[in-house]
Amino acid sequence: MSYPTSKIKRLTALTAVALMALCLGWGTAIADPALIAEGKGIRITTDDAEMIRQYSEIQGYKISQKRAQELAVRLTLFAKEAEAMGLTPKKDISDPVERLKHLANQYQLKLLDEYQYPAVVIESYYWAHPEQFRYGDDTPKAGELMPLDDPIKEKIRRHIVDWNQQKIWDEAYQSLLDKYGVRILQEDRS
Amino acid sequence: MIGSRHMGKAAALALTMAALISLGCASVQQKKISALPISYAPEAGPAERYWPDPALKDAFEEYWATRFAGQWEGAWKMEAPYFQEMASKRRYGILLKNSDKKKVLDIRLCKAIDRKCRLYEIPVEFSFSITEGKTEEVHVMDRWVQVSGKWHHVMRDPVFFPGL
């Protein structure tokens, strides 16, 4: 028994299409990851973002591809700046995302520790909120205003810094984009 | 065809006119600022002894005139420096953007509270004209703080700016 010629032709065509589809898929799979951002000594790809996305998923929260890409750029820049400042990650961190996160975190904390405001900012807060700086009833100076000395100034600075921490980090991120000449090349809208 | 000299003259004339118009606007603005209908409650004492510092009177008048002129960015610049650092400017703009919609009939100053620590609190009763024959009264504790010799407004709005 033999197959009709038309059937053989159809089978050949189908096999060819299937093979082409396989080859295309394989080709895409092994292609270089796409570049998300690059700058002086910085090269962030979709692989870096994917690592962060997977890490987040393991931690129990899902993030979009777009958010993972944003985080990849932000964490990389903060970590790079941390290293430039001489900060080092804990030695026992082997996971690359953990390491990145730890370094970035150190940089963010250092930023808050060192962030300074003009004196008028601190002084205006102090004078506008005297109720927060009076001696307690159980002290000999009950009700009197505490002097605006260094510990009080630091307390106010810390309060304003904590209030503004996201703003401070966002400003730092923008200035690091400039410092390292980072160009964001691809934005995934998913 | 118009020569380049004529073009230059026309441009200079246009610029002069624009400058005159903006000067005119500035003087209108100035009129608005000096025309605040301020009055003093009987318990506030005589007007000439009300203000601890003439600079505070000037700052108060400028601030409220700016607000009622709808120029919230001008008012923002007069807020205390800590507030400008901590508050959202966008939110401030939303809060104040309709300040010029009501007609101010009276700004009545009540007896001020001197906290003896560069913080001066002025109870103010604002009277606004809402519609024909209808008025609205709003009571505000207006706070001012003096830093480095300059008076700044202290915005406290627990709804719009909780914690500040």
How would you sum up this structure, described in words?
The complex is a heterodimer of chains A (190) and B (164). By secondary structure, chain A is mainly α. Chain A has a single domain (32-184), classed as Porin chaperone SurA, peptide-binding domain (Triger factor/SurA peptide-binding fold, Orthogonal Bundle). Chain A has helices at residues 5-30, 46-59, 65-84, 96-114, 119-128, 150-163, 165-179, and strands spanning 35-39, 42-45, 183-184. Chain A has a three-stranded antiparallel beta sheet with strand order 2-1-3. In chain A, a hairpin with a 2-residue loop joins strand 1 and strand 2 (42-45). The longest helix of chain A is centred in the first third of the chain and has 26 residues, at 5-30. The model of chain A has no long low-confidence stretch (mean pLDDT 87). With 164 residues, chain B is of the alpha+beta class. Chain B has two domains: 1-35; 37-154, Nuclear Transport Factor 2, Chain: A, CATH 3.10.450.50. Helix content of chain B is 41%, strand content 27%. In chain B, strands 1, 2, 3, 4, 5 and 6 form a six-stranded mixed beta sheet that branches. Residues 13-34 of chain B have low confidence and may be disordered. Classes of the chains: A mainly alpha (190), B alpha+beta (164). The A-B interface holds A 117-125, 127-128, 130, 145, 160, 163-164 and B 80-83, 85-86, 115, 117-119, 143, 145-148, 152, 154, 163.
